[in-house]
């Protein structure tokens, strides 16, 4: 007797459900900033635990020349009202 497979068992299903996460947003933002000549880097900012696994969150940072400092940007949440635009 066949049982129902767990959710997300096929490669195609996994791609549909988790097409992007914070690391993808951060590295894409860095690539776009660097293409415009702005110094940028992606960083793993927080690691937290969910039962049975550890998760991380990635952010981008860009160099603000006038202030001579790195500015953190959570590219996954820009525009969602969680944080101000840089």
Itemize the secondary structure elements and their pairings:
Elements: H1 11-17, H2 22-35, E1 40-50, E2 53-64, E3 69-73
Antiparallel strand pairs: 1-2, 2-3
Low-confidence stretches: none
Radius of gyration: 17 Å
Strand coverage percent: 25-35%
Per the principal axes of the C-alpha atoms, what is the gross shape?
Answer: elongated
What is the N-to-C order of secondary-structure elements (H for helix, E for strand)?
A: HHEEE
State the major sheet.
3 strands, antiparallel
Query: What class, by secondary structure content?
Result: alpha+beta
Average pLDDT number: 75
First-residue to last-residue Cα separation: 57 Å
Strand order of the largest sheet: 1-2-3
Strands, count: 3
Helix content: 10-25%
How many helices? 2
